[in-house]
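Deliverable D5.2: sample structural annotation.
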Amino acid sequence: MKLVSKHKKLLFFLALLAGIGVITLFYFWNPANNIIFPKCLFYSATNLYCPGCGSQRAIHQILHGQIMAGLKYNYLIGFLVLVLGYQLYVYISQEQFNKNTKNILHKPMATKFILILVIFFWILRNIPFYPFNTLAP
């Protein structure tokens, strides 16, 4: 733990560079027709969609300004953006402005809510008739 706090700025910078690299990769190469992106192992094994299926294509579409097309691939991407945005807000307010911001996502109730949401999404997107089949990528 001491090593992490000692090199926190370096680790943040490396994570930022990695994030920019991943975003660049998703911007310039379409996962729908490029073999450098991994296929979903769960879908390959079961022919069922996991909660993350369609995320790579969704990210590519959203980065190109096609928000609705991206969300149609995976509606959880919108929720993920909210969660990551909130996490970034908490991090910046604590680290840069020294505010004592409590992270509500670190509460057991928030964890349970997110888990239940993901499980329901996972189940519903595999029901093969309308309106549930609109959740499939």
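Annotation notes: Residues 48 and 123 are 9 Å apart (CA to CA). The mean pLDDT is 90.
The annotation will be released with the project's public dataset once the embargo ends.
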